[in-house]
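User: C-alpha cells in, sequence out, please.
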C-alpha cells in the first residue's frame, strides 16, 4: 500500500490502489466510509499507539521499516506491485511541490535505485487528502519534524528488537 506524504498524522494511506490477495481493497472491504475514516485514522496514529502500548520509542518499528526500504531498492519490484518511499520531489508527475521529501509510489529494478510510479489511479477523495498532506508538509510539519529529528540520536535497544 502506498503511503503518501509524511510519517505524521497527515499521511495518506492509499487504499484505492492497494490490493488484498490480488484483489482491489474496495472489492474486499465494501465499507467505503470505514476506509475513508477509521482505517485512515488508524494508520495515521499507528506510531503513537505503538509508543503508548510499549511505553517506549517505536524505534524497533522504524528499524524494520528501514530494512524493508533497503530490500525494496535491491530487489526488483514485481510488475503489478509498488512500494512507498519518501523521495525528493523534484520532477514528479503528481503536482507535489518541488524540493521536499514526500512519500510516493515507487518501483525498483533491484539496482539500488527507484523510479516514481506515475500511473496510479486517483479519485477526488485521494487527491484532496494528498493535497492536504502536501500543504501541511510544506508549511509546518516538515520544519517542525526536521527540527525534532535533527537533534534525535537513535539508539536501538536490544530488548526492543527481541520482542
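Assistant: Sequence out:
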Amino acid at each position: 500500500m502506498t503511503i503518501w506524504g509524511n510519517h505524521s498524522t497527515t499521511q495518506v494511506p492509499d487504499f484505492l490502489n492497494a490490493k488484498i490477495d490480488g484483489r482491489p481493497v474496495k472489492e474486499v472491504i465494501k465499507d467505503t466510509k470505514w476506509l475513508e475514516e477509521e482505517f485512515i485514522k488508524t494508520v495515521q496514529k499507528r506510531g503513537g499507539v505503538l509508543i503508548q502500548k510499549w511505553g517506549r520509542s517505536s524505534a524497533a518499528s522504524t528499524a524494520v521499516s528501514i530494512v524493508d526500504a533497503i530490500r525494496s531498492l535491491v530487489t526488483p519490484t514485481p510488475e503489478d506491485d509498488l512500494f512507498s518511499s519518501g523521495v525528493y520531489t523534484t520532477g514528479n508527475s503528481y503536482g507535489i511541490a518541488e524540493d521536499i521529501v514526500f512519500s510516493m509510489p515507487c518501483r525498483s529494478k533491484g539496482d539500488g535505485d527507484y523510479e516514481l510510479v506515475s500511473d496510479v489511479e486517483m479519485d477526488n477523495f485521494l487527491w484532496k487528502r494528498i493535497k492536504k498532506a502536501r500543504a501541511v508538509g510544506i508549511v509546518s510539519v516538515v520544519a517542525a519534524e526536521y527540527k525534532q529529528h535533527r537533534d534525535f540520536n537513535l539508539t536501538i535497544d536490544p530488548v526492543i528488537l527481541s520482542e
